[in-house]
Amino acid sequence: MNKNLEIHFLLSAYASGYFPMPEPQTEKIKWYFPEPRAILPLEGFHCSRTLSRTLRRGEYQVSYDKNFAGVMKACAARKDTWINKEFIKAYTKLHELGFAHSVEVWCEKKLVGGLYGVSIGGAFFAESKFHEKTDASKVALYFLVQELKKRRFGLLEVQFLTPHLKSLGVIEVSSVEYLKILKKRVIESQKWGDNSLRLEPKK
Fold it and tell me: For tag attachment on the chain, is the N or C end more exposed, with fewer CB atoms within 10 Å?
């Protein structure tokens, strides 16, 4: 495995505010630290009327950590993707250790939407999502927010702001503000998964 994707290195990077993506042409891993940073305040999630109707219809079933690899592979199944086999292997290992989690959305026993991300202490770092049916990825995000609130998380990071994410309540904060929140949350006891690899951010 690429040394940049080794477990302790990955966790230390996230705890310090960085996340990896490979370059499309060379697949060389680059580390990103956006300024500003996009986060979704858990109490600020906007559930639109359309999404509310979808939830009320009850056509989707939702699970957590039932098919992590399936969600990653579905997120990678697009023309322009940065999720390669090395990433799937590394994040699946994180999942096995309790540091990466998925939300699955099902319809008639078929996986039709979902998302996954990394969890350290009271911080969750959303990585990617997908949908094969209308609103399925929004349903996944809605239920992720509910789960994080139940587990008393204090940070949901989503990397970059887009018009779509802004409509769901995502905001931007400066890197200074982000690191202040991050350092407080990653040293909390592990709220979702095993706490045996707990790390603190770099000073």
Answer: C
